[in-house]
Amino acid sequence: MPLSLLKSKIVQEDILSIINEELPFHELKEKRFLISGATGLIGTYTTLVLTELNRQKDLSIEIKVLTRDSEKAKKHFSDVSEKIEFYESIEDIDPNIDYILDFSSPTSSKYFTEKPVETMEANIINLWSLLELALESESKKVIFSSSLEVYGNQNTQEPFKEESELPVNPARIRDSYPISKIASEMLGNSYAHEYGIDFSSIRYAGTFGPSSNIKTNERFINDFIRKAYSGEDIVLKTEGKTKKQLLYLSDAITALFYVLFFSEKGESYNAADMASLMSIKETAEMIIKVSKSNSKVLVSKENTDYFPKEHITEMDTSKLRDLGWTVKVSPREMFSRLIGFLEEYK
Which long-range contacts (CB under 8 A, 24 or more apart) does 167-173 make? Predict the structure, then answer.
């Protein structure tokens, strides 16, 4: 990895908090995992947690990673690469997989707009091939990483539940992302209904945490953290009035395991910190305050076509909490941990 995550005190604390969660991890002994999108934010932490479960709990979990570039992925996981099997083609994977986790998706608004075909392919076509592998493997579980964006740009009257209507617009190119997430959920649920595949999806809020590319990643919180840390002004590309919920990475991973162990077949689950609803501008202001920076928040409405119209999206997470999941890290602590992580690699 450009930055060795496992040498980070922040990352070590996060991983320890996850594996100390009261979950039946012993049930994973000698099970086989396939992770698609393992070098992304959630995929990376999930892979590291599985390797740490093997080290600390002697579970002998087999970890297989499906990637477009195995050499690049090996460098990404340089500290644990000998404990992982890397594949560039799904046809090369032995159809004997217990758990399939799909995190493979772009996350950039600019990319959704400029590459809508590739955006939809990354979600729908990739999941389709994984579901076929699950069918052949008689897998125990397939989990798809979805998004709060499936709820569209409508303003929340009350928090969205999983059964809420999903208003998206196929004439709006940027909606290639939420529409591909909805289509993927429908595809997985169809396999569950027709073939009995145990499929679940998690609709994640904006999820942030330590990453090896925190110094270059363009996602808004990472950008705000870097600017505040260096004392630069934070320049918003919109008025910053859109309000969404957030989620810290370690809480996202525990959500994944609660769904893996306890979810119902063919169900979707909202994952967010319900106390974290704030505008983009409020987020920037809190980051400046937490970092004790002299930065200011400015507005420059350039390239606004890349971003959805201003809206408020709030999800109800009671369904996931009914499985036993709880949020442990507040937004303020999230920002503090991200600043601390950046400090480790200044």
Answer: 173/112, 173/113, 173/116
Specify the residue for token string 């929340």: 156
Q: How far apart are CA 196 and CA 266, in angstroms?
A: 9
CA gap 83, 88 in Å, rounded: 17
pTM for the model stands at 0.94
Parallel/antiparallel/unpaired status of strands 243-244 and 278-279: antiparallel
Domains and CATH numbers, the chain: 5-209+246-274+314-328 (3.40.50.720)
pLDDT at 1 over 80: no
Q: Please provide the distance, in angstroms rounded to a whole number, between the alpha carbons at the two ends of the chain.
A: 16
What string of DSSP letters covers 253-294?
A: HHHHHHHHHHPPTTEEEEE--TT--EEHHHHHHHHHHHHT--
Rounded Cα distance between 342 and 209, Å, is 11
CA distance 210 to 222: 9
% of the chain with per-residue pLDDT over 90: 78
Which one has a higher pLDDT value, 212 or 31? 31
State whether the Cα torsion 303-308-311-315 is positive or negative: negative
How far apart are the C-alpha atoms of 204 and 103, rounded to whole Å? 11
The tokens 């950046």 sit on which residue? 342
Contacts of 83 (CB under 8 A, 6+ apart): 51, 54, 63
Strand pairing report for 99-102 and 85-87: unpaired
Q: How many CB atoms lie within 10 A of CB 23?
A: 18
